[in-house]
Design goal:
The chain is an alpha/beta fold. The protein folds into 2 domains: about 130 residues, Alpha-Beta Complex (Aspartate Aminotransferase, domain 1); about 270 residues, Aspartate Aminotransferase, domain 2 (3-Layer(aba) Sandwich). The protein contains 15 helices and 15 strands. It has a 7-stranded mixed sheet with strand order 4-10-9-8-7-5-6, with helices on both faces. A 4-stranded antiparallel sheet has the order 11-12-15-14. Helix 8 runs parallel beside helix 9. It is globular, with a radius of gyration of 22 Å. It binds pyridoxal-5'-phosphate (PLP). The site of pyridoxal-5'-phosphate has 12 residues, from helix 5 and helix 6.
């Protein structure tokens, strides 16, 4: 996103199974699949799991890491805060570097830009307390449509609690009539037109429904030129596309860790605050003791005044849920080892291949579906959103019966996400064959 990316050479693709096998044999990341628990069908065969955009699969290492914490708790009780094999008091610190690497943030020198904490919607609220500061005519929030329900609820909450009117002060930038995704030029134009009344631009990195990836650097620059603060919901972007939040000058961002990050249902989310804001300890915020300067944190009733840490960790509230954080160790270790550039390169090839198979098959089949996710490099991640014109529910049910795990969004969109850590080109081949009914 936001950089010139090599596009995949699709002219060499072929539709036969042998070719899919060959792509897998040449895949430098293929060994990662064995590090995951792959759900099975009743007949014992692996399901075709294309739902990593909703809930990532379990890294096998996660179980041992959770058991380690249960053991430490059993054996050490409260002493585990300081004597556990990974002491709980500083547990969140082990995610600093890997978390920063994942989203292109800074780490070290007492000025962290990423912390893993809470869940996504909670973090959106915390960020808006600090970064939605309407004043005078500048009081609107601008976001993209379609918008995830939890995000709309959160945005409206902050308008209503500041006495503003969501009907007037919540601006949606929508696809044009008859189109499915937002044109980047329309977004620029909306920011230029509305910018002076916008206090906060809060956009998706990758849209949950359409799979469209936005150019975050371009949006950030356009927003800053208008005097807006710019934050992103990276639920569908973290672990999916390459991010350079610090260099792009993004003000803040939040994400969850159970989709592309494979850290388990309801996993602890992540939060980025640019160091220039992190340093500003006078920013209004909802304060809690874990965001307080560690020097005075335990002086309790002796220090009733909150003294924020001078970085993103100053937004932490509570001592973190260790059992919920443990799987994140397994997850981020894998992302560090594989590296986002390599994952993104495989992802581009995998998604281009799936698109090719679907389009190739449909040449003869005739227009009963269309892929609404943009084709351009940089404008999509793993996910392809397939809009089905003819019997969408029936088609989805047939996929389920054939052992495909993907999802259906009312009224007619099937979302499929081949993820580079554990999906194979053969998965894409099997899925395309089933969807296009060649095997029925
Ligand atoms: C998945 C997702 C959420 C979920 O929020 P939680 O607080 O983690 O339950 C919110 N917004 C978007 C855009 C999402 O994709």
């Amino acid at each position: 996103m936001g950089r010139v990316e090599a596009s995949v050479d699709t002219t060499s693709f072929r539709p036969d199974e042998e070719f899919a096998r060959r792509l897998d044999a040449d895949d430098p990341l293929r060994a990662f699949r064995d590090e995951f628990e792959i759900p099975r069908r009743p007949d014992g065969e692996d399901v075709i799991y294309l739902c990593g955009n909703s809930l990532g699969l379990q890294p096998k290492a996660a179980r041992r890491l959770v058991e380690q914490e249960l053991d430490d708790w059993a054996r050490r009780g409260v002493e585990g805060h300081f004597t556990a094999s990974t002491p709980w008091y500083s547990y969140h610190e082990q995610f600093r570097e890997a978390g920063a690497r994942l989203v292109g943030a800074r780490s070290g020198g007492g000025a962290e830009e990423v912390v893993m904490m809470n869940s996504l919607t909670v973090n959106l609220h915390l960020m808006m307390v600090s970064f939605f500061r309407p004043s005078g005519e500048r009081r609107a929030i601008l976001t993209d449509w379609p918008t995830f329900p939890s995000d709309i609820y959160a945005l409206k909450t902050h308008l209503v609690t500041r006495g503003l009117d969501p009907g007037a002060d919540l601006i949606f930038v929508r696809p044009r009539d008859g189109e499915h995704v937002v044109r980047p030029d329309d977004l620029d134009e909306a920011i230029a037109r509305e910018g002076k009344r916008v206090a906060l631009i809060l956009m998706n990195g990758v849209n949950f429904l359409t799979g469209q990836a936005f150019d975050l650097r371009r949006i950030t620059r356009a927003g800053h030129e208008q005097g807006c603060l710019v934050g992103f919901d990276l639920a569908h972007a973290a672990g999916n596309v390459e991010l350079h939040l610090h260099d792009w000058d993004v003000d803040f961002a939040c994400w969850c860790s159970y989709k592309y990050l494979n850290a388990g249902p309801g996993a602890v989310g992540g939060c980025f605050v640019h160091e220039r804001h992190g340093r500003d300890t006078s920013l209004p915020r909802y304060a809690g003791w874990w965001g307080n300067d560690p020097e005075t944190r335990f002086r309790m009733q002796l220090e009733p005044d909150f003294v924020a840490r001078g970085d993103v960790e100053g937004w932490q509230l509570s001592n973190p849920p260790i059992l919920a954080l443990a799987p994140l160790r397994a997850s981020l270790e894998q992302f560090s080892r594989a590296g986002m550039p390599a994952l993104a390169a495989k992802s581009r090839a995998l998604t281009a291949y799936l698109r090719y198979l679907l389009e190739h098959a449909d040449e003869s089949g005739g227009g009963w579906f269309e892929i609404i996710t943009p084709r351009e490099p940089g404008a999509h991640g793993c996910q392809l959103s397939v809009l089905v014109h003819d019997d969408p529910r029936g088609r989805y049910r047939a996929l389920e019966e054939a052992g495909v795990v993907c999802d259906f969004r009312e009224p007619n969109i099937i979302r499929v996400a081949p993820v580079p850590l554990y999906n194979t080109f053969h998965d894409a081949w099997r899925f395309a064959r089933i969807l296009t009914r060649q095997s029925r």
